[in-house]
User: Fold this.
Amino acid sequence: MTYRFWAFVLLLITAGLSWQLGGWVGYRVLEQESLEESFRYSQLIANELKRYRPMPELMAEHPLLQEALQTPSDAGLLLRANEGMKRMADIVGSSDVYLMDRTGLTIAANNYDQENSFVGNNYDFRPYFSDAMATGESAIYFALGLASGRRGLYFSHPIKNDGGDILGVIAVKVQVRELESQWQRPASFTEAEMVVLDNQGISFLASRRSWLYRDFRPNEPAGDMVRLRQRYPGQELTAMAITDLGRPISVSERSRRVRLEGDGQPQEYLSVRTPLPRLDWSLQVMIGTGPVLWTRVKFLTGGLVLFLGGFLTWLYLRERYRREAELAQRGEQLERRVAERTADLEESNR
Assistant:
């Protein structure tokens, strides 16, 4: 009876250890998959930045832009600048190229002949303009277009005269849909999602459309709402319903287990956040924790099979040793009886 009790205790210990080990391995696999995807996507963004970052600086060297800023009243010169902007946009593959004077007023743009032209709009409140004017260097910014309503990366560079004085700023806008479309879910995980967050936790790239322009840091202090409204005009910027479930023991500090309740049924994810290169952005890859359950079940099954094999082996050996002991005892009894009979015969003979 005692061995049955200890066998049951050992069974529980084996099941518990197998379950915990399965969770440890499962979360490690999820994190590794997320880190690989984060690295691939961060390299993609780095390549895009490397591709477009030098463009405004090269454009700023064009003498036509300097002339247009110095003589904005010359209609013929502005027309040539507009046509030049259109050619530049075609060459670099950007959606918009436009020229702003020192006040932020757009005086020339590649879409000058369209209904939603940037010409006449003032963008002095946009950081890509103010940063370029303040530092005299290139600037980069992400925002939702005021005129187009489309998300874009803005690359800018100041235009200077021969004396080094800043005359204005040229800006190049690149749409970001391509960055979104090139994110691929890991082949082994169908419940994988991605968001790219700005420095205040607002998502501006997302694998789910309903996750765009949402606050993914609802428990942290709110940022500068005025600048957020300027950056994402017309968006509600509502907070995601996120519950932090803690960090699994086997993963690094950048990973958390979270529950999102935004779309239909609550879904649990392992969330891995990675800073993106040269920007104040962060990439958050979230993979559903369903595979962890299956890993735990596999480890539990394996642990129980090992326990059962060990237990049956122990029972077999125990029974074998018992029978050998019985045979040995019978042999001893037989020898005693033989010795006793022999002694009786000898006594009778005497």
The radius of gyration is 37 Å. Residues 197 and 203 are 4 Å apart (CA to CA). The first strand starts at residue 96 and ends at 101.
